[in-house]
Amino acid sequence: MPPASSPPPEPPARRAADPAEPGPLPADAGALPAVPGGAAPRPAPVRLEALEQGSSLGRDAWRRLRKNRAAVVCGVVLVAMILGCVLVPELSSYRYDKADLKLGAQPPSLDHWMGTDYFGRDLMARVFFGGRISFAVGIIATLVSFVIGVSWGGVAGYFGGKLDAIMMRIVDVLYTFPFLILVILLMVFFANDQTVLYRAWKVMLGVFVENPADPSYFPIFQIVVVFAALGGISWLTMARIVRGQVIALRGQPFIESARSIGVGHAALIFRHLVPNALGPIIVYTTLTIPEVMMTEAFLSFLGLGTQEPLSSWGLLASTGADAMDLFPWQLIFPALMLALTLICFNFLGDGLRDALDPRIRKD
């Protein structure tokens, strides 16, 4: 007789559901509006592509600068003028220094779009060639002032104390001299052929040319003196700006961290402090270029800057002003080019100032 089979085991009793305990989650947690029991809904998973990407200071500044139409248009105009000054004298069929005494002064025509000067030289070629010198003076002299001002202000602001006091008192003393008069004195004493500086220039020029004493090289020497004189005087405000920025940054944690790992003084100044103060420095540099160009134009107007046969906008305006009643085009065209350049640099500088201002919040 077969043994009686045991009854099947009873299934385990279900535990009573706790109303406060959440139930199992489905695979798509984002589709669950709420958990059982009336608890707060679970947030949907955040997708990485939905996160807002960070933006650097340079990117934000470029975005704000593009919104400033006046600054963008002025920047494009400046680039076009620089390209014109580089290309027009090379592509023109008339040289800036080629005279035609039979032609004389002629008004604008199809052959000479800006007319000619007293000696029959094409004014368009001379205006654009003069733009080379005017832009070169503005940019190179500003770079000289940039190097001196950033170094001077960075060292004074970083070390502070007595060194800062001595260095800034020197700046204050130089501020007491009239800027233009000091530049004129430098030009009078150094931009002549009887100085030690000119003899050193001939020695250095002899490395590149066979006859460095050729008088045709003397106007180039005067241009170099203009570079040095303007750049050597216009760095004072730059030094003050850099000093103030360095003083504000030298106590920041990233400077203390760099100092704690053994970074030297020079690296702290020029690799950590100055790059973080570039905003105001760039703005002031942009505004210094037109100031230097205007000063060079005034010096050339007085006969202390660019000399014949070279040309600059100031020299052309000076010669054009002498015959403004008879030949007005000789003054109008170089004056318009100079005025347009100064206006564009000022608008561009204002746009950069607004774009690099850290107090402007992100839109």
UniProtKB/TrEMBL annotation:
Main location: membrane
Domain of life: Bacteria
Protein's UniProt keywords contain Transferase: no
Domain called ABC transmembrane type-1: residue spans: 131-349
UniProt topology in membrane: Multi-pass membrane protein
Biased composition (Low complexity): 26-38
TM regions (residue ranges): 70-89, 133-161, 173-191, 220-242, 326-349
GO cellular component: plasma membrane
Subcellular location per the Swiss-Prot or TrEMBL entry: Cell inner membrane; Cell membrane
Bias type Pro residues, positions: 1-11
Family matches, as InterPro entries: BP-dependent_transpt_permease (IPR050366), MetI-like (IPR000515), MetI-like_sf (IPR035906), OppC_N (IPR025966)
Keywords: Cell inner membrane, Cell membrane, Membrane, Peptide transport, Protein transport, Transmembrane, Transmembrane helix, Transport
GO biological process: peptide transport; protein transport; transmembrane transport
Family: Belongs to the binding-protein-dependent transport system permease family. OppBC subfamily.
Protein name per UniProt: Oligopeptide transport system permease protein OppC
Organism: Sorangium cellulosum
Gene name of this polypeptide: oppB
